[in-house]
Specification:
About 5% of the residues lie in helices and about 40% in strands. It is mostly beta strands. It has a domain of about 110 residues: Umud Fragment, subunit A (Ribbon). Strands 1, 6, 7, 8, 9, 10, 11 and 12 form an eight-stranded mixed beta sheet that branches. A two-stranded antiparallel ribbon has the order 2-3. A two-stranded antiparallel ribbon has the order 4-5. A hairpin with an 8-residue loop joins strand 10 and strand 11. The protein starts with a strand and ends with a strand.
């Protein structure tokens, strides 16, 4: 079986990448705001009172979520396949192309013309793409097949 890791950086700001018949839209329009206050006052439920004036920092969400800016992109999940891993349909997934996929990591991969968000099983000469939702079966990758790993999932964003 052949596993390819594409180059970590891209040379052009493409909005779409094609693999066979499948197309996946890169979320280049997501803007992560910086300068939002992080209050040091612990709050078990609710919101801290601005009168407490315990602002610890103004964290930059991009700095918190993106380790390798030139190799990171965002995708919107359109499946419940990783529901058990806390990734829901509609979530924005942070993907780092500079990290090498390893056994048991969450990845974005292209296989047989389809873009997939799954957990990589890569052990003892056997490769599969696993789901954490009982409604999805494992995708077995034959030794003669080609699997292109686009990157490793490093985070998610969700609006409640």
């Amino acid at each position: 079986m052949k596993i390819r890791h594409p180059p970590a950086t891209t040379t052009s700001p493409e909005h779409y990448r094609f693999w066979g018949e499948a197309a996946i839209q890169l979320e280049t329009s997501v803007q992560l705001p910086g300068g939002l206050p992080l209050y040091s006052h612990p709050v078990p439920a609710g919101f801290p009172s601005p009168a407490d004036d315990h602002i610890e920092d103004h964290p930059d969400l991009e700095r918190l979520l993106v380790r390798h800016p030139a190799a990171t992109f965002f995708l919107r999940a359109r499946s419940e396949a990783l529901h058990g891993d806390g990734i829901l349909s509609g979530d924005i997934v942070v993907v780092d192309r500079s990290l090498k996929a390893r056994h048991d990591t969450l990845i974005v991969a292209a296989f047989q013309g389809e873009m997939l968000l799954r957990r990589l099983y890569w052990k003892d000469g056997h490769t599969a793409l696993l789901s954490s939702h009982p409604g999805f079966s494992a995708i077995q990758i034959p030794r003669i097949a080609s699997l292109e790993i686009w990157g490793v999932v490093t985070g998610i964003l969700r609006v409640l």
